Amino acid sequence: MYHNAKELLALIGDSGKSIADIVIENEMEISEMSREAIMDELQRRYDIMYKACHDGLETAVTSISGLTGGTGKQMWDFIKSGKGIQDLTTQKGIAYALSCSEVNASMGLIVAAPTAGACGILPGTLICVAEKLNSEKEDILKALATAAGVGQIITKNATVSGAEGGCQAECGAAASMAAAAITQLCGGSPEQCFEAAAIAMKNVMGLVCDPVAGLVEMPCTKRNASGVTNAILCCDLAMAGITSHIPFDEVVDAMFRVGKALPSTLRETALGGIAVTPTGIALKEKIFGGGGCSGNCASCGACK
Ligand code: SF4
Prior knowledge:
About 60% of the residues lie in helices and about 0% in strands. The protein is mainly α. It has a single domain (about 5-290), classed as Orthogonal Bundle (2-methylcitrate dehydratase PrpD). The termini are far apart. The protein binds iron/sulfur cluster (SF4).
């Protein structure tokens, strides 16, 4: 059993095992499931992720509120045009993340990894990199297990809730998980996986949670796209031998302290950030009318 990255790396020692090996062994112990059953469950979740990352590419998926939608298809069409600055792998990862996020906003089936709001980052990143590397199924599922291990550590020692720690806790955690996963897929060491995860979290330290109209759509969808580029960037940094200098566990502690220091207006209440810009307020009124209901009962309760 491990509680942080330091303990997990100590369990690996010089065994030659990966982070995924330890995470799967730990899961076998606490769930009393066989390795085969755990790999089957990882496959089931990967299949859901894969579908959500593709459902919004050829057909525009629109949210229930009508606030967002269609960006996965827009990005996919743009990729097909051959234009764009980033390489094809990153472009595809962005389109996958947008699609997945839009499927979530349309109340479709996604895997909360670690949350629904940040659900596009890990699958978008993992799928596009696995395609580039032509990875084996077993290696993809083990990368998913590594992501789960990183998410476990963040959850145990901090939070993955935007309401508790801001968007750094949601999209930051998802980018850390994705960065570690693809670093392992690229052949990085366990230490390099945690370097990538640490840098990804540092890159969005302090990011606020400010959803327009209290809905997990805007800015969430595009932050999922941003999380993919963050994860791929950090994988490349780690694989180049560049380190975070601040260890992953200390970065997680810092993120939690920053989250606690954020005012409640910037933690999913829709009372700060872009949610209260003139356009953000106008969009809210268009959806809910001018009666003042944000749809976010936790921040209001006026109707109770
Ligand atoms: S802005 Fe808030 S609701 Fe949206 S993804 Fe970030 S943490 Fe989640």
